[in-house]
Inverse folding.
């Protein structure tokens, strides 16, 4: 018995020891696991905190270059309506008040607008902008009637002013190849009803949860499974949405950001659940690193509201301007609810593409606001009864083709600045007022072209157009339209469309002729020189060529002035033959084109390729008296609000003598006054100007180039596939030029084209080019270089 007890004791003793051993192992394993878990959580908390801090300190906004137009200018006599001015002020983010008192405010009165500029020539002063009380009738006058023009500018404490300058308007933000429209506003600047509309529909308990809301998630699941609502309820909080769309999206999409944040193991690259867990964890971290108001402000500035044309729209401030043409401070309750409703599904709930769904969603938001106690039921009912009225603004309003060109120049000329993390502001030469006038002129002109083509039963498919307007004195690009619709085609025709310039090249033939005559001291090539305009066969390198005039019209012996005014082909080729085709080609080469034409007879008629940009550059030689002013678009680049680069204007390049350039300019006056562009005068364009129509072989392309001392504009119209347009330059391009120039120069003084010293003026018989006598029925005051004026009197009318 003793042995049995001894044996039983021996076998029972190890069991407690084994239990204690396993317990120790379990405790140690649990401790190790806790340490690993704590370390892992600490690591990811540190990683998430770093990423959150980077984003919160505005890195995303700083690294997005923002492109601005030139400062907005108001000018007495400007072609601008009261509604357009209000629209411009909303673009600048001005708040509409009953009385404008503080900088950044404006108020409407009876045919007047009061505005207090934030910056510019009269910053902080109240400005009264007065418009005519009644339309002023006119007989066959300009396209911009007096009723559409700014009548008077008054600055309080200063008096009447001719011009008032405000701050530059934002065009767009450039971000990783995607263009975005956003305008950052402080939370205090956003009206309470806008904030409450967003909270009511997106996250009613925002101020009560720590970044994630289990109650909301359970409620959303229950409502979506068993509820009878006509829409799905989301479970993500505003903080989670912000993390998903701003913080995580930037890291996942950008390998550079990913490496900088050192988050490779944490990113949920596989499995939606990992992404959701990461999103929730970062949401909690975000709310520990920032206040509720900071999170909400960032969300309201970053929330995606859809795509318009080439622009991604972000933020309630930009949405207010896009949908309603207003600053966010001026939104009504119904408008605020509309914007809040779009957030859930910007594509399906867009007021532009789905107005009925957008209106229904707006009313859902209003009901949610009532349930949350954010608004009275009566106010919500009134708002729900309002029609959905949006601003049908053109997609091209922010000069997308121009912005593309600026983006290219920025990357090419300032790569070091673009790669920096600081905020970058790019100030350009674009005049947004002229840009919108240009877009209107192109749109209306192409509608007219479509009608003409339809009547002639031409091929289907829309014609395209390009317009570039520059200040010839400085080379600054003021307006740029690269095509009919950027949304349909991003092909930038101003910069890259190589087409035959046709007859717009002819002035350079005349310039080459006058230059060579001056070089050789010849007096036989002047504006009054007679050339034979008749069917002619030209021989060149054992080949023959027989150019023909438009519609086979020939005038026989005519002066060079009439030959250019009426765009006579054979007379121009004969002139090129007289001075040498190589002389003509050499002169064009000095204008700086990317391709130099061969010195064949066809060069006289512009049978080679050039872009509208190159044509505009070359034409600056005429108003600048022989000096080419290279074009440029970037005025200044600021980094973190400090000047980082201010490119000097490109140096002028000499092309010809001032006197010979003026002779050609004076010839081109006749193109507008009595030649192929005379319809511009018939339309009411009255300023001193010069220009040239252009029509290529088989009516393939239509051009017009024209200028005053302060504005030079090139217009091209044609098909992208190089099919014949079937219309001349005076039919297709000239009406666009005329419409734009009349409105662009409305209220401007009639400045004469510059004339150099030494020009000799002589009254001649306009038919035979000799000195006029009292009996000459048609005379003309002609310009000559000294010593080249005619000495013989007109014999035909002498007696």
């Amino acid at each position: 018995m003793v042995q049995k007890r001894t044996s039983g004791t021996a076998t029972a003793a190890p069991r407690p020891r084994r239990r204690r051993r396993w317990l120790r192992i379990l405790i140690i394993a649990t401790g190790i696991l806790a340490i690993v878990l704590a370390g892992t959580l600490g690591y990811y908390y540190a990683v998430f905190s770093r990423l959150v801090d980077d984003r919160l300190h505005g890195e995303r906004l700083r690294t997005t270059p923002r492109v601005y137009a030139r400062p907005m200018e108001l000018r007495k006599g400007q072609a601008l309506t009261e509604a357009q001015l209000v629209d411009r002020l909303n673009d600048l983010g001005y708040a509409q008040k009953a009385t404008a008192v503080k900088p950044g405010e404006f108020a409407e009165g009876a045919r007047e607008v009061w505005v207090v500029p934030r910056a510019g020539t009269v910053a902080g002063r109240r400005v009264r902008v007065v418009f005519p009380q009644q339309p002023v009738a006119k007989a066959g006058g300009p396209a911009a009637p007096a009723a559409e023009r700014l009548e008077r500018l008054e600055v309080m404490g200063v008096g009447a002013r001719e011009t008032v300058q405000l701050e530059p308007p934002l065009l767009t933000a450039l971000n990783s190849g995607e263009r975005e429209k956003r305008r950052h506003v402080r939370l205090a600047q956003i009206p309470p009803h806008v904030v409450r509309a967003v909270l009511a529909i997106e996250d009613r308990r925002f101020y009560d949860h720590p970044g994630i809301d289990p109650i909301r998630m359970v409620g959303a699941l229950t409502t979506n499974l068993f509820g009878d609502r006509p829409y799905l309820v989301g479970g993500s909080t505003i903080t989670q949405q912000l993390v998903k769309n701003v913080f995580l999206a930037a890291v996942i999409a950008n390998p550079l950001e990913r490496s900088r944040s050192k988050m490779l193991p944490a990113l949920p690259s596989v499995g939606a659940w990992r992404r959701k867990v990461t999103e929730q964890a970062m949401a909690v971290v975000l709310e520990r690193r920032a206040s509720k108001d900071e999170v909400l402000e960032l969300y309201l500035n970053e929330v995606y509201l859809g795509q318009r044309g080439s622009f991604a729209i972000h933020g309630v401030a930009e949405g207010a301007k896009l949908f309603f043409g207003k600053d966010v401070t001026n939104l009504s309750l119904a408008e605020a609810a509309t914007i809040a409703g779009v957030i859930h599904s910007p594509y399906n709930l867009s007021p532009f593409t789905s107005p009925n769904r957008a209106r229904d969603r707006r009313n859902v938001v209003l009901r949610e606001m009532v349930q949350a106690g954010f608004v009275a039921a009566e106010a919500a009912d009134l708002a729900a009864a309002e029609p959905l009225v949006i601003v049908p603004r053109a997609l091209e309003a922010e000069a997308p083709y121009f912005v593309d060109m600026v983006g290219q120049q920025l990357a090419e000329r300032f790569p070091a600045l673009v790669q920096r993390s600081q905020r970058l502001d790019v100030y350009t030469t674009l005049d947004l007022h002229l840009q919108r006038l240009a877009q209107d002129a192109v749109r209306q002109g192409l509608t007219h072209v479509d009608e003409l083509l339809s009547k002639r039963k031409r091929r289907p498919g829309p014609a395209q157009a390009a317009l570039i307007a520059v200040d010839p004195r400085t080379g600054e690009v003021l307006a740029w339209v690269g095509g009919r619709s950027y949304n349909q085609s991003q092909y930038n025709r101003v910069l890259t469309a190589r087409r035959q310039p046709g007859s717009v090249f002819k002035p350079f033939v005349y310039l080459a002729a006058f230059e060579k005559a001056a070089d050789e001291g010849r007096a036989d090539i002047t504006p009054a020189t007679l050339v034979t305009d008749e069917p002619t066969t030209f021989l060149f390198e054992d080949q023959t060529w027989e150019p023909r005039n438009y519609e086979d019209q020939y005038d026989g012996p005519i002066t060079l002035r009439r030959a250019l005014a009426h765009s006579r082909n054979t007379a121009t080729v004969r002139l090129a033959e007289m001075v040498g085709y190589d002389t003509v080609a050499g002169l064009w080469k000095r204008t700086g084109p990317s391709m130099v034409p061969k010195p064949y007879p066809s060069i006289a008629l512009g049978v080679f390729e050039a872009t509208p940009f190159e044509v505009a550059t070359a034409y600056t030689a005429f108003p600048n008296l022989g000096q080419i002013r290279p074009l440029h678009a970037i005025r200044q680049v600021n980094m973190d609000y400090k000047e980082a680069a201010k490119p000097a204007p490109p140096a002028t390049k000499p092309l010809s003598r001032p006197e010979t350039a003026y002779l050609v300019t004076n010839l081109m006056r006749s193109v507008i006054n009595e030649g192929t562009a005379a319809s511009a005068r018939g339309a009411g364009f009255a300023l001193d100007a010069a220009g040239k129509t252009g029509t290529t072989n088989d009516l393939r392309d239509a051009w017009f180039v024209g200028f005053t001392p302060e504005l030079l504009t090139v217009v091209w119209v044609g098909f992208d596939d190089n099919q014949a347009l079937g219309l001349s330059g005076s039919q297709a391009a000239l009406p666009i030029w005329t419409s734009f120039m009349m409105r662009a120069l409305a209220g401007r003084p009639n400045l004469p084209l510059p004339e150099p010293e030494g020009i000799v003026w002589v009254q001649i018989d306009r038919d035979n080019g000799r000195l006029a006598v009292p009996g000459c029925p048609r005379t003309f005051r002609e310009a000559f270089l000294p010593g080249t004026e005619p000495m013989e009197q007109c014999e035909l009318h002498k007696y």
